[in-house]
Amino acid sequence: MAPTLSKEQRRARLDMLFRQRAALDGEIVLHLGEVERGEEYRDEGATSTEAWTVERFGIAVSTARALTRVGQKASDLPHLVGALSQGAVSFDKVRAVADVATAESDQELCGQAKEHSVRELADIARSAGARARSASRSPSEHDRRFLRFNDQCRTVTAQLPAESYAETRACLQSWANAVAADEETPLDQRLCDGFMGMVRFSTTGSSGPTTKGNPNLVVVHVPLATLVDVAGQGSELAGELERDGLIDTDTVRRIACDATVAVAVDDDVGHTMYEGRARRFPTDAQRREVMRRDRQCRFPGCTNVTFADVHHIVAWKPGGRTDLENLALMCRFHHGVVHRNGWTMTGNANEELTLLGPSGRVMVSRPSPLWTRVTARC
Q: How far apart are CA 46 and CA 49, in angstroms?
């Protein structure tokens, strides 16, 4: 149909489709608001409306978060959500102001949403947020401090009080100046090298580089031949850096040269050793392998890694074995969920797990694609 339309017909069609899309988004956020208020997501084992939406409808976390946040405030914003449901404003416009919107400012912000762009609305919201913060008691610089890790991007972000920032900057610059540099190494890379120098040598009690071995433990899953082969042949997928990703031969050897290396004893398909009924609790090697395989809680839709336990799918005492295929990583919340009445978990954790909850919905959980990719090569 689309190729046969004229320019005017196509534009009119798109106008109608985007109005319909906005109207659908309006209905979606209203229903998600009710799911949130009634905590209906708990019926299927989810910890939040956001997590439930991601798992059930297969959308991105960022999309689910935006829809849920607007849904949480939908009942207090009849003008904004009403305009959205009528297709008069887009979801992006409502989302831009939803965080600062109140029942008192709803009508005014709705009028502005009809007149301004998304970018302009973001500026309006930012200004409103700044006014609200200045009207309340502002936290001190010390109370606003934080340091966050982004495992996916491998970045560290910090907000420091002024004196701590000055101290950290001076220290890093001192380390960067001490790093041997050539004309091709920019300052930001030398600062990164200085930062890693501080991390590596902080536990030795030394104020600078030392000849002692690196005190940190690095776990690499890699064929032994890669470490002992002297032929120098490179490989695109020589191994896996635990909790990071696939690495090549050169990276394996560089790590092995400058770290304490833990070598996992794997079977012929790349799985860590089996323990059967010989012991109830997984070994350290098995725990590392479960983390490597699952990456996060195996409950569908849950991305939690912190406070995660290794769970026996078939209980150890009645007959379950402490083998990799019977062990799954579960966060504390979902570990409790699957032990409650009405929930069952079956299957092989190395391949596919099936979860059935009280609502009768069947959910499937599979290992990390990275783990599957590595073991498929063995």
A: 7
